Amino acid sequence: MELTMGSAFKNLLQWYFSKRTLPYWCVLIADCFIVFFSGVLTYWLFNKTMIMIEHRFDVLYTLVVYVVLSMLSARVFSTYSGILRYSSFVDLLHVAYANLLTIVLALIVSFTARSLGWFEFSALTKTETVTMFFLSTLLMGALRVLIKALYDVSTLNKLTRRALVYGTLSGGIGLAKYIQSQRPRHFSLEGFITHEKTSSDIRLMGKHIYSDKDDLATIIREKRISAVLVSPLRLSEFRNNQELQNVIINAGCKIYMVQAAREASIKDGQIAADDMSSMQLKEVSVEDLLPRQEIHVDMASVGKQLRGRRILITGAAGSIGSEIVRQTAQFQPASMMLIDQAETPEHDVQLMMQNEYPDVNATTLVADICDKKRMDYVFRSFRPDYVFHAAAYKHVPMMEDNPSEAVLNNIRGTKYIADLSVKYGVSKFVMVSTDKAVNPTNVMGCSKRICEIYVQSLDAAQKMNPSAFERSLADGQKAVNCQFVTTRFGNVLGSSGSVIPLFRKQILEGGPVTVTHPDIIRYFMLIPEACQLVLEAGTKGNGGEIFVFDMGKPVRIADLARRMIQLSGATDVEVKFTGLRSGEKLYEEVLSDMENTKPSFHEKIRIAEVRQYNYEQVCKEIDELVDIARRYDNMETVRKMKQIVPEYKSNNSIYEQLDAKK
Fold first, then answer.
1. Which end of the chain has fewer CB within 10 Å, C or N?
2. Which residues contact 366 (CB under 8 A, 6 or more apart)?
3. Distance between CA atoms of 563 and 557, rounded to whole angstroms?
4. Are strands 386-389 and 310-314 parallel, antiparallel or unpaired?
5. Are residues 562 and 570 in contact, defined by beta-carbon separation less than 8 angstroms?
6. Backbone angles phi, psi at 582, to 5 degrees
7. What are the distances in angstroms from CA 349 to CA 355, 493, 588?
8. What is the full DSSP assignment across 282-332?
9. Chain mean position to CA 38
10. Strand positions, DSSP E, 471-594
11. What are residue 365's phi and psi, to 5 degrees?
């Protein structure tokens, strides 16, 4: 019976609130009734029943006058024009101001009526009049609060999640208000979590504030919490609090963060107004929870360098290349030449440019950087100012099986693009390298290290003897040395070669999730952050530097796999260790044993102090290596690579026998 009554009441509420709003005159009539009722109640409280009956007409006339005065005050402050279900503190203030004005008008009318002998219009004393409108204010406010509360209850349903908000500053409060205003309601606010110590008596928006040091697992269970929402102001802090994440996930809660497309803009501890109004909530993926520090890049100065310039990007359809395309396009370059040999991804880049940057003059070219004649034609006709070289084969196991292709594409291709940059007067050449080039244990890493060696030696040779290099300059173009800059960093989240998409697929298939080794660790960085650092390093470098990015804390891949399983809600998926793959090592480095770093213009970017190589000798070695690679003799190809890079020691590979013979 109680269930039936409750359902009927809820259905009634839903029917009422399904209507858009009450007409303004309904609100006005309700307020007038409250004024009249408050007057009757007040007079009765002060004078009791018999006196009230005796003076009933005087009371009636007086209250009619007061109701009219109340209507005038309501008109002044528009107390009836608000939508009751969305009443706010401002609306309650307007009600109070209106009734305060009515008190003043009522006392003036009462005094005037008494002076003129019109006692039937002054039945209430000053005290009774003030009390009456004080009571009216309370009842009008209560009506609005009640309707708002009933509306909030009516919007709850079985799918509404009971939620805690992590953060108690403006971001947390804004997030709490946002979820309360959502229609339909996806979350019901049940409290806040703060990183600070707090008293058990403190409340915010009427809800309890819990410390992250409290027994949150018990609190979540007792309050039946199923979601934790993270404030935009606390994203970095939450990401780095692995212990809190574990408590929440192990308790069976889902974690949600704001700004799915981008993180909120924060200035002086406040969220930008535009971000607050367009706030979006998204259930977190493991990428959102990886510990990392916020990176600030002076993109304005980068934009000044790139605006109005001709930009050429190789590997433009890859994970890094396409993001560099996206970020450079926003600075209105004069034109862009986007090169990749993968047709379908290159088509995606073309569509992206047409849809998102229609005003940018961009040419998408399906071509192979190893086609020297084609690349010469591209450089001769396009005349780039900046070259961002991101094209490379990057998959470690694939290149371990195909070392000749690694040499011909990565090394020979880089040499072609670098030489053409010098020939056609490019201002700056920026090469995207990898931390696998440091103390390499695989073919791919060694190929990238040889690329680093070549562009560095070329930069140094230019500075020492500029006239020794062939130039083909356009009319009026001044001969300048091309500055060669190398950027070196680790894994990026969301790339095509990342383990995360593989793990996600394995979890969906029911497992097992395959990890090569229990102790293997990797550095991770978001693609946009990595590309911002690439652009800043590239535009601010002076040539010859190898910029090393601070990748933050390394992540144990086995822990990453387990966290993904937890986030998915799967209970019967196991982690299986398969052994290190060919050429793989337990941890990556950003510096070799013989390298040190010095600071740069950005706290997250260091400059590696590396060994210098003779340009002529490097060219001779690379030419010999390419000749060997063209014979597709894998063992001899790798042997030559090890001669060029003595620190290259193969790991878990058939090429380890070459190290044993040294």
1. N
2. 340, 341, 342, 343, 346
3. 10
4. parallel
5. no
6. -60, 125
7. 10, 19, 31
8. EE--HHHHS--------HHHHHHHHTT-EEEEESTTSHHHHHHHHHHHTT-
9. 53
10. 483-488, 491-493, 513-515, 521-522, 524-526, 546-549, 555-556, 575-577
11. -120, 120
| Euclidean distance between CA atoms 204 and 173, whole angstroms | 8
**What's the per-residue H, E or C state across 246-269?**
HHHHHCCCEEEEECCCCCCCEECC
Question: Tens digit of pLDDT for each residue in 498-514?
Answer: 777 788 888 888 878 88
Residue 604 and residue 530: Cα distance in Å, rounded? Answer: 10
**With contact defined as beta carbons under 8 Å apart, do 309 and 334 qualify?**
yes
Provide the residue type at 252 as one letter: G
Structure token digits, residue 208: 């309890």
pLDDT in tens, 376-390: 999 999 999 999 999
What tokens appear for 43 in the block? Answer: 């007079």
The distance from CA 500 to its chain's CA centroid, rounded to whole angstroms, is 18
Q: Structure pTM?
A: 0.68
227-230 and 207-211: which strand pairing?
A: unpaired
Spatial contact of 531 and 572, defined as CB atoms under 8 Å apart: no
Instruction: Give the span between the Cα atoms of 15 and 166, in whole angstroms.
Output: 34
Asked if residue 622 lies in contact with residue 415, where contact means CB atoms within 8 angstroms, the answer is: yes
Peptide bond connecting 512 to the previous residue in cis, omega within 30 degrees of 0: yes
Q: Cα–Cα distances in Å, from 289 out to 63, 258, 515, 555? A: 64, 13, 19, 11
**For 184-204, what is each residue's pLDDT tens digit?**
777 888 888 887 776 666 788
Length of the chain: 662
Q: Which residue type does 541 have?
A: G
Give the three-class secondary structure for 341: coil
**Residue 189 neighbours by CB under 8 Å, 6+ apart:** 163, 165, 176, 179, 180, 205, 207
